[in-house]
Amino acid sequence: MEKKILSSRYELEEQVEQGGMSTVYKAHDNILNRTVAVKVLKKEFYNNQDFLVKFNNEAKAAASLNHPNIVNVYDVGKDEDAAYIVMEYVDGINLKKLIKGKGRLTESEAINILTQTCYALREAHNHSIIHRDVKPHNIMITNDGKVKVGDFGIAKATSSATITAVGEVLGSVHYFSPEQARSAYMDNRSDIYSLGIVLYEMLIGTTPYDGDTPVNVALKHINSTVRIPEEFKEKISLPLQNMILKMTNKDMDSRYNNIDEILKDIDSINAGKQIQNYSLENEDEFETKIIKMPKKYTTPNKKTVKKSNSKKLNVKNIAIASALVIALVFLLFNAESLYDMAFDNKTVVVPNIIDMKEEDAKKTLEDIGLKLKVTDIKDSDKEENTIIYQNPSDGVSIRKGEEIVAMLSNGLKQNFGAPELVNLDVNEAKDKLEKLGIGAEIEYEFSNDVNKDIVISQSVKAGEKLKKGETILLKVSKGKDENLTNVPNFIGLTVEQAKERLDGFTLGNVSYKQDTTKQDGIILVQNPEKDSSAPKGSSIDVIVNKLDENKGNSGQYDPTLNVQDLPKTVSKEITLILPQKEYIKLTLIEKSTGVVAYSTNVSTLQSPNYNVQLSSERGTSKQYDIYIDDAYYSSTSVIDF
């Protein structure tokens, strides 16, 4: 595939999966140096602003979940014409492919996968997040048998689209709960229904309902009752049959109330105990009833019906059946509207309260007969006490008196990473930080490689966690050092005469050599050489002629000393600003050669400032790449030795 990098960070490597709503790629995070999965929305959804807002809100809510059985959501972003979610890359197979490959799973395999999936859903439900799209395609099995549930909250975003317009919804209709098929109010028991369909498919190999169109399948969820096929009643243990029937009951109140109840029954099954028997025969309200009719309306005996009327009767029956099907389809897609018409004094449409202050949202809901329930407070860049998540979402019709579950922002966003600022103009970098509520400390330095006013490095690397109000140190290029000047000529001068002509330079190392052909006390050699260019303020080393063996006023006499014997290695100490952690591995690599120049383990909890001693040959200039825990962090400016 053609190389593509999203937001200058995520390099797409290969396509992993193609769905009706999105495409999933295996990708490389160039900042954190790790493999990730990137789900890129298709263009038709990117242009739907309502969809994007809901998609973004749900993805952020999902990112707040942290559990070993949940696929981690790392990032949500937009890049040109692409909206994407960055997730943990799971090396394994999805449950749908596993079932397809094996035909059906053993009971022990199904129970193991069911248990781990329950752990994931329980974590979500405890945070008031309903998955809404539980299906085998979203359940990954790693190579070591661990279950990872993905796509939390994504189905909620798709619920605003019609059933015929969204391919992903069409693909999920086999796992719809009856209330989801009716576009009615949903809660955690809707996920339990879908999970029951998944358990059915694991043990039997197919879904309970199929049809020529998605509408047909949805109607079966609404009107039919899940039953265990006769040929499988001998193959599946009675407790698991009971569990399937209870999970997939059309009546929400007759299902398991929560995931913990399912896990309790799983424990009983694993211990060899029976669970509460669940019989469909007791559910009269969902069965077709035979009503005795008065004698005068008793159906005539077949023998009394004239043969000539049979064709008319068949035509009439077909017409009635067709009309019923059309009416049923109409009711499916207009159930919510008809319900509102019949009970307009008892139901209301949920408004959008995202970005509202808690008090404003509470008043808005109370004005239409609803209640606000705040379940969690999250770190966010939104203003304090602003609502960042709601369930149910706006547009859903519910009864008056129901609660709207919401999450609030605490105004201290912990879960956003520092932006990439290196190579940006300093003003652009400052604007980015200002929008995030982050301060900028600017430190300018000369650079032969980076243009003036361009950011060379940042003290908090891109992707690292930040809080509002924190400050990032930016090192910014002053451009090339234009303060270079010609080195004065000290040859033939005494040290005292040279001191008078330093012209902004300093006198460096003074050594001695005996040359009987030259005058005593004069400078024989200097480094840098005369008329060469060097920055003002740098030092000039000299060798002075000494005709006797006494020590001079400064330096050490050496009759064998030549210019090439001046100290070749020079040390420089630089100060690095590092992330404050209990323990980091710090490595400096010379940029031009790739040679490791410095490596150590260090604690920076007390102070982010850390001094490093570097050495190189005199007269050389070098730049170093800084790595923290083997990941690129930033680069030093050019250091002159």
3D architecture notes:
There is one protein chain. By secondary structure, the chain is an alpha+beta fold. The protein has six domains: 5-88, Phosphorylase Kinase, domain 1; 93-271, Transferase(Phosphotransferase) domain 1 (Transferase(Phosphotransferase), domain 1), CATH 1.10.510.10; 348-409, 2-Layer Sandwich (Trypsin Inhibitor V, Chain A), CATH 3.30.10.20; 415-477, Trypsin Inhibitor V, Chain A, CATH 3.30.10; 484-545, Trypsin Inhibitor V, Chain A; 569-640, Sandwich (Immunoglobulin-like), CATH 2.60.40. Helix content is 27%, strand content 26%. The chain contains 15 helices and 30 strands. Helix 4 packs antiparallel against helix 8 (188-204), helix 4 packs antiparallel against helix 11 and helix 8 (188-204) runs antiparallel to helix 10. The longest helix has 36 residues, at 307-342. The chain is elongated. Keywords: ATP-binding, Kinase, Membrane, Nucleotide-binding, Serine/threonine-protein kinase, Transferase, Transmembrane, Transmembrane helix. One of its GO terms (molecular function) is protein serine/threonine kinase activity. This is non-specific serine/threonine protein kinase.
Topology:
Blueprint: E1 4-6, E2 10-18, E3 22-29, E4 34-41, H1 43-46, H2 49-63, E5 73-79, E6 82-88, E7 92-94, H3 95-102, H4 107-126, E8 139-142, E9 147-149, H5 154-158, H6 167-172, H7 178-181, H8 188-204, H9 214-223, H10 238-247, H11 259-270, H12 307-342, E10 347-349, H13 358-367, E11 371-378, E12 387-391, E13 397-399, E14 403-409, H14 426-435, E15 439-445, E16 455-458, E17 471-477, E18 484-486, H15 495-500, E19 506-513, E20 523-527, E21 533-535, E22 539-545, E23 569-577, E24 584-590, E25 596-602, E26 609-617, E27 621-622, E28 624-628, E29 631-635, E30 639-640
Parallel strand pairs: 11-14, 15-17, 19-22
Antiparallel strand pairs: 1-2, 2-3, 3-4, 4-6, 5-6, 7-8, 8-9, 10-13, 12-14, 16-17, 18-21, 20-22, 23-26, 24-25, 24-28, 27-30, 28-29
Keywords: ATP-binding, Kinase, Membrane, Nucleotide-binding, Serine/threonine-protein kinase, Transferase, Transmembrane, Transmembrane helix
Pfam families: PASTA, Pkinase
InterPro entries: Kinase-like_dom_sf, PASTA_dom, Prot_kinase_dom, Ser/Thr_kinase_AS
